[in-house]
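Notes for week 9. Today we move from apo structures to complexes. The key idea is that a small molecule is not decoration. When we ask for a structure prediction with nicotinamide-adenine-dinucleotide present, the ligand SMILES becomes part of the input, just like the chain. The input block below holds both the sequence and the ligand string. Read it once before you look at the output, and try to guess where the molecule might sit.
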Amino acid sequence: MTVTPSTPWESAPSGPVTVPPFAVVSGDQVQQALQGREKQIVDLVEETYRLHSAGYSVNPPSYFLRFPDRPSSRIIALPASIGGEAGVDGLKWISSFPQNVAAGVPRASAVLILNDRRSGYPFACMEASIISATRTAASAALAADRLSRGRQRPTRVGFIGTGLIARYIHTFLAGTGWSFDAIDVHDVSADSAAGFRCYLEQSGATGWIVVHDSPEELIRRCDLIVFATVAGRPHVYDPSWFAHRPLVLHVSLRDLAPEIVLASDNIVDDAEHCLRADTSVHLAERLTGNRDFLTGTLADVMAGSVTPSADRTVVFSPFGLGVLDLAVGKYVYDEVADSGELHVVDGFFHELRRYG
Ligand SMILES: NC(=O)c1ccc[n+]([C@@H]2O[C@H](COP(=O)([O-])OP(=O)(O)OC[C@H]3O[C@@H](n4cnc5c(N)ncnc54)[C@H](O)[C@@H]3O)[C@@H](O)[C@H]2O)c1
């Protein structure tokens, strides 16, 4: 049971300031703490969206480090602070190097730093590509559930872009009770589509698996569509492909032409974050000069203050909030600490006496 303080920073830390021990948490430990916990993590992400919406967070814009000599690569810093039970500050530092994939190395790599709220000292450095994929997939599964209430529950899911994030999203959908009559798959890389198909077969997914050479047929057939590509600009333009009014989880944010956004109900995680960095909703804002096409946030839907129309396509565009990484990271840290397996680096902070 999460206890929410009555004012955003009522939970501000008090008591003596001490230097916490510093621990390193490996990907193996992160995976063990999260595996099979899909329902708990979706609940945690839901609670974190609520805290964020109620003002119990600080979540400035992500900072994009880009390189003139490597234009397709980037490293993003997501600093954040979350109140409530987690009560932690920190930073995710996540790289995206799409060329890695051809060499058999995952595109994204990341660390998460957790900072103690009393002293400001970092107390953990954690492998964070799994944390990041987990919170993204949990947010997508939460949105699939919340945004399909009040309309016919989807029976056919399509994945456009079938890398690591698509795999995690499928795992979270399956782990939170979804099953489908068919799963449709499209990727510009035949190898990726084949790899994903193989994963689906091994995961025990029920229903037909249909691989498409182009996105149109997939979009026309599916009532739940997941975009998880690395497209930097829109490649799906035709609103008529969405005439059957599907629910779209636009996790990769830049696939849809603004005309499709404008013909849909649009739910975001946080408008100030989403309307940046050339996302499709950002392009729609530029085109229209306003934000009238935004229906609300997922937290608004959860609170019942916004209900997306059952008669329109619904597009969920989650920018991905640092507070989610902190909440999931702190959950993992606590699990590892409780199991007595924390790898503490003795003497990590060394200059602790002001005058030696
Ligand atoms: N919104 C969020 O919170 C959030 C969080 C994490 C990742 N992401 C995004 O999710 C996306 C996927 O991440 P990943 O780690 O799975 O990447 P990945 O590189 O493992 O997989 C991406 C796949 O998309 C395919 N692809 C590229 N362009 C395509 C197109 N036009 N049509 C169909 N397929 C296409 C690639 O061939 C590749 O197989 C990235 O854009 C990433 O930035 C979003």
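The chain has eleven helices and 16 strands.
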